[in-house]
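Q: My labmate handed me this sequence with no annotations at all. I'd like to see what the chain might look like in three dimensions before we decide whether it's worth expressing. Could you predict it?
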Amino acid sequence: MSPLRASYQFTASACASLVWRVPALEPAFVGVGSHLWHRRWAGRFYRSVVGRYADRLRRFGSPFRRVMIAGMLLTVDVTEFTTWPLYFGKVPYEPATTDYLRRHLRHGSVFADVGANHGYFSILAAGLVGPSGRVFAFEPNPSVYDRLGVHVSLNRFDDRVVLAERALWETTGERRLFVSQWGENSGVSTLTPGASTIAAGGLAPECTITVRTETFDDWLAGSGVERVDLVKIDTEGSETEVVRGMSGALRARRVGAIVCETEWESDAHRLLCESGFIPQPLETSGPLTNIGYARHD
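A: Here is what I predict for the chain of 297 residues:
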């Protein structure tokens, strides 16, 4: 390692350690974030400090803070990949998708979060649907499922959020889940691992667990819910299998709208379009796009 690089890392670690040791500095540290985040050199250094500070919070402290999301003050883990740019830099996570939820959910609505992860969109939806609405959050990874439950409880949404520790799939049974090896990003866990993520160290063939699977149709049949107003699907590559497992609900028009992270040419996209949904691109990240699907009527 070059002396310059070593000095950079030492300084970033020292700054993170200072904020960690003197908690009263955190508000000021966070306050400058939005001014520095997008600057070329200062922003890079600030984000390096944030990464080190977030790692300390994740491992040794309490990572939960009150954060304004879509006009609601919610309690979230600010070390998660969805929230740390928002808390430290006022950079919103997937703003177009967030706005899509705001437009499709209102008090009394029903929302299904397929691949809920730690619950960013689940708790956002819970705030939008109110006490008379329902949120069904599906997350098969036990450790992430536990964090999802903590988020729900801290925001006092237990009265409207139903947690399901399983993966939605095209069949009901069991599958092998590849568990994320990146502590700062639990969102890469998947039933359908990609070679590039394995090569990058995000997944490993020996780091898997067996999880329950269920089709959307089977779940809906026993849920007591007549219609789901909005379904969000983000399952790291298995979106097509999820859509195949909800064919009955789609034919019966028991789903109002869908947000699906997929490719424009994917089978999931084709199946949803063939079911009568009109696609609307939201956010794009690499080859994947969050696409909103709503019926023309």
